[in-house]
Amino acid sequence: MEKKVIAIIIILSLLITLFTGCLEDEGVKNRKPKIEITLPDDGDMVTKIVQISGIASDPDGDNSLKKIEVMVEDDKWEEAEGTDLWIYEWTTYQLEEGYYTIKARAWDGADYSDIDEIRVNVFNPEISASGEHKWAVFIFAGNFPLENESKLGNGGLYLAEEMATHFIEHYKYPTSNIVILFDDGWIRSDNGFGKRVKTLTQRYHKYDISYASATKEKVISTIQNVIEQSNTYEDSEVFIWLAGHGFGNSENTITGDKLFESSSVYLWDEELIEDKELGVLLSNMKSKKTCIIVDSCFSGGFADKTIYNFPTLFLLKSGIPQSGRVVITGASKYRSGYSSTEEGPLFSFLWFDGIMQEKADGFRDGMFNRGRPSRLNIFKDGKSSVEEAFYYARYVLRSNEVIKDYRDSQPQINDQYPGKGIVRSSSPLILGQ
């Protein structure tokens, strides 16, 4: 009897040990994460900058996703932006046309997910149709960093889309030659102050234009591609709009600490693009019909201007203004600019209003380029040039009582179209012609 009791106790002990062990093993066993590519669809035709995005999840429910990685063909794995909602931007400008395999995987710190993959068809036409040698790039980064309360909202994106639509419908810009770079490639709720909602390409668009993030790498590669394409044609027209947070000291109301400093604009990855850097980037662009607008605080250096139309010091010149270009900034080098979270940068909004509604027709420079309307019809031709729109915006800034608190921004212009000196005044730059 005693032996039976001992045997039963031993058997029960073994069972309890095994059972407990099974529970412990089951409790600590890690389950692989899951991932799905949701954009683009398998078999889609893609071009230019491709936004690859998807969702991932952790079956264990402990939010342990560490990273998402994407691979194109048999190249190396690259880390995507985000985890449960993620995005990766793939630039196809220099690739041969044809089918490419895109793979994605998630990692939770212990295991990789199974790989999800799709096949897409890259199509990059090398030239535009005859008579359509026009390119436009709209760049806006305004909703970073996360803890910064001075977010600029989604207004810059909406303004860029309005300008792009106008350029397509009225200036015959081909949709294939228009790119909008915004934040990190996502639209956020609460007008830019909330969480990610969807990628820019997942939203409804009236026209098939290209979208991507406003990171430094994307800004440089996009502008380089525009230069390469536009240099092919003698009649090319280029429009570049760059807006966001400028770099300076608003507490210094005299010079903004910019007396011996370059003007610069923050991009999404918090990298600065300086005026001289943009000048070097644009140095080999041959287009003789170019408009460049930089709308940010302390941005006058991009136009080689300080304030009241005075030039910057010789050693601080950006090199952006050249023959055939009109360079405009939304503020002087020494002053802050202003932006609406709903309608975008104030100066750009007024400039576009003047050119879109033809309100700027006949506006002249005036003293210190402050802008003044013309009472003589000989200065009106029914069209608004980029210069007239500048003078119109400056005039509204200093005369409209509703926005009188913002009139000290002192927008600047460096007009060298069609050439330098007296020649420039003989022909204003009218987009689309």
Mean pLDDT: 89
CATH architecture of the largest domain: 3-Layer(aba) Sandwich
What is the strand tally? 22
Largest sheet: 7 strands, mixed
Structural class: alpha/beta
Strand-residue proportion? 15-25%
CATH class of the largest domain: Alpha Beta
Rg over C-alpha atoms, rounded to the nearest angstrom? 28 Å
Look up the CATH topology of the largest domain: Rossmann fold
| Helical content class | 10-25%
How does this model look, in words?
The longest helix has 27 residues, at 2-28. The N and C termini lie far apart (109 Å). The chain has a 7-stranded mixed beta sheet with strand order 14-11-10-15-18-19-22, sandwiched between helices. A 5-stranded mixed beta sheet has the order 2-9-8-4-5, with no helix packed on it. It has helices at residues 2-28, 155-171, 216-230, 275-281, 346-356, 386-399; strands spanning 34-39, 45-46, 49-57, 67-72, 78-79, 81-82, 85-91, 98-107, 116-122, 134-141, 178-182, 186-188, 196-199, 210-212, 237-244, 264-266, 272-274, 290-295, 325-329, 339-340, 344-345, 412-416. It has 2 domains: 34-122, Immunoglobulin-like (Sandwich), CATH 2.60.40; 134-426, Rossmann fold (3-Layer(aba) Sandwich), CATH 3.40.50.1460. It is an alpha/beta fold and 433 residues long.
